[in-house]
Amino acid sequence: MTYVGIDVSKATFVVAYSSAKGSETKTFKNTVKGIREFIQTISPKENHCVLEATGNYSMLLVYLLSKAGFVVSMENPLKIKNFARVMLSVVKTDEIDARLIALYGERMQPAPFKLRNDSILLLKQKRTVLRQLKKQLTANTNLEGSLKVLPFIDSKSKKVLEKTIKFLQKQIKEMEEELTSLAEIEYKKQMDLLTSIKGIGATLAAALIIATGGFTYFDNAKQLTRYLGLSPTYQQSGTSVNVKGHINRNGDAHLRSQLYIGAMASLRCNTECKACFERLRSNGKPGKVAIIAVANKLIRQAFAVVTQEKPYVDGYKSAKP
């Protein structure tokens, strides 16, 4: 299997058919036509394509390659960046980056990327638009508040802001309803299982389904916790390095915030989460650390009910010794 390195940008992508210095590279347009031209130059049986995850710019390429039967790996850019440091790379161009990605594939042999199904892609688009609408609403609300402290307010500006805020609130409400509705239609069973956990509502359940592809991207709850950036870190070396641990903060910061809020809500009604929080607090752990631990417990509960296909029973005690 020959690894093909691909460096993707908005308008084009550069392909390195080999990692060897001075080997052939070729540039294609990042369009359907350009991707099809690239596909004609490689073979599904002989080539494994590797590229960095660059958000929406790489999704069309990954989608068409996967549909054409190619093995594709889409890696975290941080992995490629750290690999370049290990290889003592000091020059950065699109061609060199493509060869470096091909070399990364040869040395690291990354796992194939699991293509998201169409419903997950639609849910992700709705979630992205919803988040941007909320950011715009926050910005306009803050602007309206800042104008109110002025000696006098321009009536036209005030009217425009009020209309904009009402429009954004309406759009946000509609998008939230559509997102939840689509999640309940496509993943009704998982939504029912997840919302059976006290502390996880429809919004958080839908967010977990989107992030995990319907709980198909991870083998266990520990992998999901690491992906969401809630894994504790610790640095210790000899007698001079002993850094206090914190969460790794990788992955989706917005979903991490939702889980934090869900963890706080679960303290009122989820027996296991409440017991976990009280135990950690009695052992002297800070409140935020205990909440993070509760968020991890919520993830484990979510993973358990979905994989076992059984609703959550609050306060359940196993019959096993």
Automatic annotation (TrEMBL):
Ranges in coiled-coil conformation: 158-185
InterPro entries: Transp_IS110-like_N, Transpos_IS110, Transposase_20
Domain Transposase IS110-like N-terminal: 4-142
UniProt domain Transposase IS116/IS110/IS902 C-terminal: residue ranges: 192-275
Annotated keywords: Coiled coil, Membrane, Transmembrane, Transmembrane helix
Record's keyword annotation contains Transmembrane helix: yes
Transmembrane segments: 199-218
Record carries keyword Transmembrane helix: yes
Stated name of the protein: IS110 family transposase
Source organism (scientific name): Segatella sinensis
